[in-house]
Design a protein that fits this description.
By secondary structure, this protein is mostly helical. About 70% of the residues lie in helices and about 0% in strands. The relative contact order is 0.07.
C-alpha cells in the first residue's frame, strides 16, 4: 500500500513537471523539484531536462551543481541543460579536469561545442581521448566550427586528419571529414584513406 502510494505521488509530480516544462512560463516548480526530491533521481533528471528547455541563462546556477552529482545520468543531463541555456562554459571546462566517466566526458565535450565562448583548444584536446569521448569532442568541434563559421587552426586540422584516418568509430571519422571538407582541406593522405574505407558514408566525404 505504501509503495503504491509512493508510485502514484511520483507519477503525479512527474506529470506536473511535464506541464511546467511544456508551458515554459515559470520554472519555479522545476527548481523546487531539484531540492525537494533529492532522493528521487528520475524526478531530478526530469527537472534538469525541463529547466534546460527553458533556454534561460539565469537558471543555470540551479543546474551547475549537478555536474558533481553522484549519478552519471544526472551529470549528463546537467551538461546538456547548460548547453541549451547557452551557459556554463567555465564550469563545464572545469569539470573536465576531474570527470572520469567516459559517457559524461563525451556529453561535456558535446555541450561545450554548442557554447560560443568555448575555446578551440579545449575541444581539440578531446580528440586525443579514447572512444566514445573523442566522438563527443568531434561532434562538439564540428558544431562549434560550423555554427561560428570559424576556420580551424593548423593544429586542429592536423588533429582532424589523424582522427579521419585512425578513429575506431565511423561516425567520428565522418565528423572529422565534414569539418575538414568545410575548411577546404584537401590533405592527400586523408583523402586516400577515406576513399579506401569500406563504409560508403565515409567514402563519400
Amino acid at each position: 500500500m505504501v509503495f503504491t502510494l509512493a508510485i502514484l505521488l511520483q507519477t503525479a509530480l512527474s506529470y506536473q513537471l511535464l506541464s511546467v516544462e511544456d508551458a515554459r512560463k515559470d520554472p519555479t516548480p522545476l527548481v523546487e523539484a531539484l531540492t525537494s526530491s533529492s532522493s528521487d533521481v528520475e524526478i531530478q533528471r526530469q527537472a534538469i531536462r525541463g529547466l534546460g528547455r527553458f533556454e534561460r541563462e539565469e537558471i543555470a546556477p540551479h543546474v551547475g551543481p549537478f555536474l558533481a552529482a553522484e549519478q552519471p545520468g544526472l551529470r549528463i543531463e546537467a551538461a546538456n541543460a547548460l548547453a541549451q541555456m547557452g551557459a556554463g562554459t567555465f564550469v563545464l571546462s572545469a569539470r573536465l579536469e576531474t570527470e572520469t566517466h567516459p559517457a559524461v566526458r563525451q556529453a561535456i565535450y558535446e555541450a561545450l561545442g554548442r557554447l560560443p565562448r568555448t575555446t578551440e583548444e579545449t575541444l581539440r584536446t578531446g580528440l586525443t581521448e579514447e572512444h566514445p569521448i573523442q566522438l563527443g569532442a568531434a561532434k562538439g568541434l564540428e558544431h562549434w566550427l560550423r555554427s561560428g563559421d570559424i576556420a580551424p587552426s593548423d593544429a586542429t586540422k592536423r588533429a582532424l586528419r589523424d582522427l579521419a584516418i585512425r578513429a575506431p568509430s565511423d561516425l567520428t571519422r565522418q565528423l572529422a571529414l565534414l569539418a575538414l571538407h568545410r575548411a577546404g582541406d584537401r590533405h592527400i593522405a586523408t583523402l586516400e584513406s577515406s576513399w579506401k574505407h569500406d563504409n560508403p558514408l565515409v567514402r563519400r566525404l
